[in-house]
Design brief:
The structure is a homodimer. Chain A is α+β, with helices and mostly antiparallel strands. The first copy, chain A, folds into two domains: about 80 residues, Arc Repressor Mutant, subunit A (Orthogonal Bundle); about 45 residues, Dna Ligase, domain 1 (2-Layer Sandwich), CATH 3.30.1490. Chain A has six helices and five strands; from the N terminus they run ααααββββαβα. In chain A, the strands form two sheets. The first copy, chain A, has a three-stranded mixed beta sheet. Chain A has a two-stranded antiparallel ribbon with strand order 1-2. In chain A, strand 3 and strand 4 form a beta hairpin. In chain A, helix 3 packs across helix 4. The relative contact order of chain A is 0.13. At the A-B interface, strand 1 and strand 5 of A face strand 1 and strand 5 of B. Chain A binds a DNA duplex through helix 4.
DNA sequence: TATAAAACTGTAATCATTACAATTTTATAA
DNA sequence: TTATAAAATTGTAATGATTACAGTTTTATA
C-alpha cells in the first residue's frame, strides 16, 4: 500500500509504521470501524499495539482532517474523508449503510460565519431487512 | 403549557406529570440539552426526580418519534423534532448552532429500501467567535 | 377496596474514552 | 558513533455517560 506515507506527510503527519498501518486499514475498510475493531484487526500484524495509540492516531487524523468521526450507539466510528456521502443507520440492527447523497453546501452568507471542514448527513430508520422480519 | 398532554396522547404516550414536564422543558429549550441539563433544571419543580426517569422518558420520546438524539462530545443531546434543520458544531467551544438548512430528502429508489423517520445534518468546524480569538 | 399494571426511583455495573506517567523509538548534533 | 532531546507508543488507572435491575410508588381497573 504505497503513497500513504506521502499522503500523511502532505497532511503534516510523520508517517510512522503504526500510523501507516492504521491509515491503510481505514482505506481498506470503509465500513466505519470502531476503535475496537481497528485494534483487534491490527493486533496480529502489530502485536505490541496499544489501544491508546489507536485513539491517539485517529484523533490526529481527525485533527488533520483526514478522518471524520461518526458518533453512533454511544461509540465513535471512523470514516476516511473521501467523496461527500450520507449514512443510513438502522435503529434495529445498528448497521450503518453508505448512501450516495451529497450533503448540501452552506450558502455564502452562512458559510461566511462558520469555517466548515466536515459535514455529516445521517438518516435514521429501519432498513429493508429489518422491516421484513419484524 | 397546555395541550402537551394531548400531543403526548396522540403519540401513544400516557401524559404523566413528569413526562409533561420533561416535554415542556424540551419545547422551551431548543438548544439541545443533555440529560444532565434537563435533570438539573427540573430538580426544583420535581424534587424527587431521578436521572433514570429522564433517560427513560427521553428514550420513550425517541421511540415515539417526538425527539431526536444528537450524539456529540460523547454525550447525547436531545432535540424536539420540529422543522427539519441542520446543526453546526464548533470543535473549539463545543457549541451547537441551529442552521436553517434542510436535509435533502432521499430519492424514491433509495427511500424504497429504507424506512426513514429522522434525519440529521451536522456541519463540523470552527465558529466565528473562536476563529477571531484563536 | 383489592389487585395488577405502569411509572418512577436509586444504586450498582458497564464500557468507551481520557489522563497520565513511563518506556521506547526516532531524529539531531556533538 | 554516541549522547541528548523530542516524538511516539504503551499500559494502567480514572472518568463519566449510559444501562441494568430490583424495589417502591403511583395509577388504572375490577
Amino acid at each position: 500500500m504505497e503513497n500513504t506515507s506521502e499522503l500523511l506527510r502532505q497532511h503534516d503527519i510523520k508517517p510512522s509504521f503504526t500510523r501507516v498501518m492504521i491509515f491503510d486499514y481505514l482505506k481498506e475498510n470503509l465500513n466505519h470501524p470502531t476503535v475496537d475493531e481497528i485494534f483487534q484487526a491490527l493486533q496480529t500484524s502489530l502485536p505490541t499495539l496499544s489501544k491508546t495509540t489507536v485513539y491517539n492516531t485517529l484523533d490526529l487524523f481527525i485533527d488533520k482532517h483526514l478522518v471524520q468521526p461518526l458518533l453512533m450507539n454511544q461509540q465513535k466510528h471512523y470514516d476516511l474523508i473521501t467523496d461527500p456521502h450520507a449514512h443510513f443507520k438502522c435503529e434495529r440492527c445498528d448497521t450503518i449503510f453508505d448512501l450516495d447523497v451529497k450533503p448540501p453546501k452552506l450558502d455564502k452568507s452562512t458559510a461566511a460565519n462558520y469555517h466548515v471542514y466536515g459535514t455529516q448527513l445521517i438518516y435514521r430508520g429501519v432498513c429493508e431487512k429489518c422491516q421484513k422480519h419484524g
